[in-house]
Amino acid sequence: MGLDARWAESPAVQRRFLFISAAAALFFLLLVLRLWYLQVISYEDYQGRSVRNRTRVLPLEAPRGPIYDRNGQLLVDNRPSFRISVMRQEVTDQQQLLERLAVLLETDVTSLQQRWQAGKRFPVYRPVPLANDVNWEIMERIQEHSVELPGVLTEVRPIRDYLEKGSAAHLIGYLGEVTENELRSDQFEQYQPGDLIGKTALERQFEPYLKGTKGQRLVEVDVKGKLLRELQMEPARPGNKLYLTLDRELQRAADQVFADQSGAAVALDVKTGEILAMVSRPTFDPALFARGIASEEWRGLINDSRHPLQNKVISGQYSPASTFKMIVALAAMRSGVAGKNRIVDCDGSLELGGARFRCWKKDGHGRSNMKKALRESCDVWFYQVGLELGIDKLSLAAKEFGLGAPVGYPLPGERSGMIPSQPWKRARFGKPWYAGETVIASIGQGFVLATPLQLAVMTAALANGGKVMKPQLIKQIEDWQGQLLVQSQPEMIRQIEYSAAAWKAVKDGLIAVVNEPRGTGRVAQLPEVVVAGKTGTSQVVRRKSDEEEELDEGGEVPYRFRPHALFVAYAPAEKPEIAVAVVVEHGQHGGSAAGPVAKAILSRYFDLKKAAQQRQKGQGH
Fold first, then answer.
1. What H or E segment, with its residue span, contains residue 230?
2. Which one-letter DSSP state was computed for residue 570?
3. Which DSSP helix (H) or strand (E) runs through 249?
4. Which architecture characterizes domain 56-241 according to CATH?
5. Global pTM?
6. Region 156-172: what's the mean pLDDT?
7. CATH topology assigned to domain 248-284+312-619
8. 300 phi/psi in degrees, rounded to 5
9. Active site residues
């Protein structure tokens, strides 16, 4: 029997043959099905992967909304900036790449390594920024060596441009990178690591309005990640336009006259409470934060004993000194303790319980009524009247004018100051109030503290007949189509009631301060406008005895021990429009140090007003 016959007759052989044939057929069937799946079912997926291998989606940063002054003058804008970034997944030799970049960027490898490590928290497909705001020369140098720099990108992005440099920096604020804690909050759920957000002041408070909407670019790259061409672009949309109540020209004048002194100045519209100018010195450059502040620059700011990052207009708390005397005079008239003709004989001091409280003028002011006491800032007159008035009535009057509590500044950081009372001291220290403390409080010293903004609100309220206006900073916000999103309106906190005679008596005294002989504020006189004001000298250390002062006569007082100089004013006296408060830290005398600052602000305000009227008159013809 032949082999074929035996095979044909063997059931086992036949079964094995059929099994192998079936297995082979099944294998080829599966192969065909797999090819069909890849070619038909998964075509779009693999096509997408292929496209992604040769394309990149690059985000386009949105310009933040510009900030204008009340007249539409640009204060803060954006400018194009070059950033050098790297796509990590396209880098095979990190150390070699960073060493090459360090030479081209003229920086050290360590700083680039730190940025690389920080970038690991980004998704792998996002570029990691290695150098921000590089100049044109470096950017061209990077592009020339692009073949040696796989994965390196040159990006153009908008960066904040503060046109007035450090002017109003504390009001505007600065930007910083969004933190991991912020990213975990609902407020920042639409942000990504590396995004810049407002960190302080306006930039922070109005972040939702100022933040734009990102766009994106679809670009084609070669196998080394080098950009070949742009395939598609979705443009970014800038943030909204924000208009402030500030007047740029008035702000410039305030900055210029304050120069390098430390302290604060603020000007308000008497009728509306709008902030027309705000200066806190020393200042800082917000652009440092926009481009990424260096550690040594940050240390320099936070270690500066003059506190350049503090907005002293709203958070600097100073003894208001003699600027507080207008409140004492009003409260005394309302309570019947003293009228405008009340006479106190000032011989240079007041004796109380074995203690001697001196007037700033050693020889005294002689017989003084209210007007003279305000004009020449006689301490003894206010010592005596304050004692008779009592601290609680004085406290109530001060709080009505906005002292001792935040006045409603629309941005974070406002301090409340301090207006003491008998209940306050017992709750705070567990001790009774003493008459000597009333004496000191009556000239705005001791426990009494106020911010420059509170002093401006107080002065404006006196000028307008008792209307305490909430400070306004935002004029309006609108989008790029001109649609109004936010518009502020004047808001009165309260109306203070005093008799017409009381208002007039105190106002007459403040006019005399600036415009009459022996007035302590004569330096603030203007040729065509009547200014009303009050000087103040705020002690920062205990007053010395006569004997100690005689020993020190002619000596130079160390800067940190010199008293602060204060000046508050409003004008025109007959129909007030603007109120100003100035504090020059360690300026010693209100009239000589703070007075010229207030005068320059007032003078510029009326010059600008006159120029505007002349333009309108010319247009009318």
1. strand 227-234
2. E
3. helix 248-258
4. Alpha-Beta Complex (3.90)
5. 0.84
6. 90
7. Beta-lactamase (3.40.710)
8. -60, -35
9. 322
